[in-house]
């Protein structure tokens, strides 16, 4: 024996040293190379994600519909929804962990359907011809390859002939059978036809789809509605911690799958009640009607009774032979039997007297139909009737429970066929007084009665009081269990010396995410829930409590770390769930002599209180350390509290600011009318956000970004206002600078092309509205390039600035002069009565551009060529068209000799553009 124990220890040590393996099962009709290649990346990924654990793929046939069979081969199973429901009905199985999804370029698709295909040239490729069609499915336990199509046809009023339906092993076989015309119609999973099109579009073109559905944003054609994709199942006995590791790994597999261009991934578990409803409607397994038990079933069930009966018959036969053999001896013992008979009669009389005098036992004599033939005095008293009224009454009429009433007569027949047996029954009799009496009774066949008129004895004990006490106790226990389950406190009980946990209430899962059974099996569980940084202080508290002979109540709190398991149920960023604060209270229980017998306690979740305290501390820290200025006022605007950033931004000290009105910040807030308007806005909306002009204590102007909120009491009355502000003076100045750069020329300060285009469009709208005219004048300097080349770029820039100032002076205040770039300018003249009204402006611009300019020691002179176009025009035009027309007119002026203007005419579109200087 010792050698066998040593061998087992060695084998156990060797097994523990081997690498742990996770067996991931895939339900597949076929385990060809394509199927294995499809899921091989998943096994490689899981081996990496769950290292050092190794993941192995196990392919299972849909015929293996026993949870025990699957559990022998796999820890987890990816199965058809139909198979999942079969396993669920076969044996207890927890809900799916996840569901498979199809990865599409635009997202994920968590549903699938079924498709009915046929050859286009087949005359039976019609829903009305299905009753005569030969049909092949992808498997009798396939949702999308059989059940979904059958339900869709049933709802269309089409019943399939089982003799014309054959179940194959895969969708590929179904497609081949349809193409070879061995069957008329094929049931396959949605997407099969699309896969065939990618591989062989010519063959796919020969097929047609029956009953196509209109499904938006679904990349495949389906003949049925859509159902959830395949679930991921955990087999019974798989540790919860292994499930907790697998689930996040599979959820993260989607990124890996997209990188490696895989077509499947995983998501949250889907609702499979629709699949269950479909199978119920079809009355398919496991929801098909149960067949009546066979004769072999009854024979097997009652084999023991048959053997006993046979044995009794053999015993009777043997006894008969013995009696015949000793027939002669019977004559010799007649006298003895006569004497014994007299004694039996005496004993019968004594037993009868004792039976009638009993106040505990109830005796009733019955016939084969349950009619009362006799009873003792206690039975008559209990039934509340006389002997004449009690006899010839059927006992089933007194029985309250229908099940007990229906079981009595069959029990009598059973005892008649099997003498010597005793049936134990629980009976509830309803008396004439409407009182219910509960009996524990033994029913047996009385010997000596004729076989055609058997008699039975029912001997019972009144257990009504005991049953009432038991029911009351059960209700009390149930009530206590309900209170414990609904209680927010977890109840604990410990052995005093070892502090071994003896009991923990069932509601412990809410706090610890473990069942009471798992916790009771964990050694030193209470200490293991306390983090190392809190254990020393709590151990010190416990030691003082023990030294004080367990006086009073020991109370302590600590954070309970529960890891990442909470990510399946709530957001892991929620500290109230991933980390709970537990308050534990312990007290001693003593017997009547004062001896310590047990330590009981409770644990409650005080996370909300702890978080509230942390939030208050955080709010105080934020208020003090925030870079934004914060202050609180009463409902009249008087400052009650402020932070250091308020003083830094405004220049006021805390003493100077407290007790003053917010008008001290200057700007709009200094106006009483504005304060009243702002207060009404806050009272009505509860919130205001915007920018305000203010002043620092030094008088310096500043721009503030303000956020104001109203704080209300329980009656919704405004009690305080909270303000948060920041100094955005420099930001506003920078924005203004950027706005100027975006719309104005950096050299001359004139509007640039962007701002010019906007003003042209505005002027066009105004001209249409006022029925006036506007002119766009294109100005190009003649001879500017020679000045720029001879005197340098600085001289050229100076010349541009000087001429821009002169031309702007020659225009009206509401007109626009813009620089397009280089030596090109645009003048926008509005509110003209006629096109010729633009001529004076052109003359003044020519004169301004032609005046000499003194640049250092040099005097330079240039001229201008001007093109003019007028809006509105007969043809439609936009801002770009007007600029182009003015540009063409300007080139025409250059062509005519420069230093002059020219109006745009349609024929100018045909003239070539000259080269600029």
TrEMBL record:
Gene3D superfamilies: 3.30.70.270, PAS domain, Periplasmic binding protein-like II. Its EC number is 2.7.7.65. Keywords: Nucleotidyltransferase, Signal, Transferase. Coiled coil: none annotated. Residues 772-906 form the GGDEF domain. Residues 615-661 form the PAS domain. GO terms for molecular function: diguanylate cyclase activity. CDD domains: GGDEF, PAS. It is an enzyme of class 2 (transferase). SMART domains: GGDEF, PAC, PAS. Residues 562-618, 688-740 form the PAC domain. Residues 1-20 form the signal peptide. NCBIfam families: GGDEF, sensory_box. This is Diguanylate cyclase domain-containing protein. It comes from Rheinheimera marina.
